[in-house]
Amino acid sequence: MKVSSNFDGGNIRIISTKHVDNIELQIRPDNRADFLQWFYFRLQGVAGYPCRIRITNAGNAFSKEGWENYNACASYDRMTWFRVPTTFDGQVLTIDHTPEYNAVFYAYFAPYTYDQHLDLVHAAQRFPQCILESVGQTVEGKDIDLLILGEPAENKKKIWVLGRQHPGESMASWFIQGFLDRMLDEDDPVSRRIIERAVIYVIPYLNIDGGIRGNMRTNANGMDLNREWENPSKEKSPEVYYTLQYMLKTGVDLNLDIHGEEGIPYVFASSIQGIPDFTKRLASLQEHFTMNWESITPDFQTEYGYPGDRPGKANLSICSKNIAQRFNCLSLTIEMPFKDNDNLPDPQYGWSPERSEHLGASLASAILSIIDEI
Ligand code: ZN
Q: If you measure from the C-alpha of residue 163 to the centroid of ligand 1, how many angstroms do you get, rounded to a whole number?
C-alpha cells in the first residue's frame, strides 16, 4: 500500500500506512500560513480492501463546520468524482471506502489543475470575439490569464468575473468553465445579446501558485488574496495588485467573484449591504439580480447565507465589497457548497463539477436580466 501527493494540487502528510483499516494521514497547512482544509492524494495497492483513512488533524481545519455532514470525493479516473462515506468526531475525519480498483484518488473537492486552466483559456481564445491576455504575474512568475469577450467600446458595460482567489475552492474553476462554454456559444441568444451590450473580463484562476501547492486559502507568500483589496502589494499580493490595476483602466459595472463555502450547504451571494455607499440603486440591483437568478435555477437561493453586515461595517479588504464601493457598482461574492445543495441533494455525487458548470452557465441569464440596470 502506498500514499502519494506529489502532483499539481496534491496535499497530504503520511503518518502511518501499516494497516488498510487504519491509514493515518494529516493535511499539510498552506505553505506560509496556518490554514488547512484542502486535501488531495492517491492511494495504491488497495483493490477490494475495506480501507479506513483517518485524517487526524482535521479538527484544526479552517472550518470545522465544513466536516459536518461532509462526504469526501473519490475518483479512479479523475473524470468522475463520487462521494464516499465520511465521518467527523470533532478532531478526526474518517473516510471508509472499499476501492474497486488498485489506485484511487481522494480530494476535498474535484480538483481543477493549472493544466486544465491552460487548456480552458487557450481553447477559449480560438473563438471569435475572445482574446487571451495576462494582467501580470503571480508571486512565483505564472501569468495571470485574462479572457476578454467582446469588442471593447466606451458605451458597453464592463463586466468582471473572477475565480480561485482561494485556491482550494476548485468549484470556482468548474463554474467559470460552464460560464465560458455558454458565453462562447454563438448559437446562444442570451450570450449574443450580452456580448452586444457588454465586454466581459474573466480571470478564471487568480491564485495559481496556491493551487499548484495544494494550499487551501493563500498564495505563495501566505496572503489571503480576498483580504488584500484595500491596498494590494506588488510584492506580497501581485495577483490582486495587477487585477485591480486593470480594473481601474477598464472601469467596472458588474463584478462577480466566484468561491466555495465549507460549511453552508447552499449556493448563495454574499450581500454588499454594509458598504459605506450602499445606495438605493445598489440595493435594488442586488435584489433584482439575486431574485432573478433564483427564478432561473433552483440551485441558487436567497434564504440561507452569511448574516448581512450592519450599515457601514463591511470589510472593504474583501474583493466584492471593495469593488462595489470603489466603482459604485453591483459586486457580489458567489458561494457554492463543498457538500451539496440541501434543497436539491444528490447522495451519490453531492455538489459536483457538473453542477458547478451548470450554475456557471445559468449566470449568463442572470446577467442579461439586469444588463440595462447596471
Ligand atoms: Zn473563498
A: 9
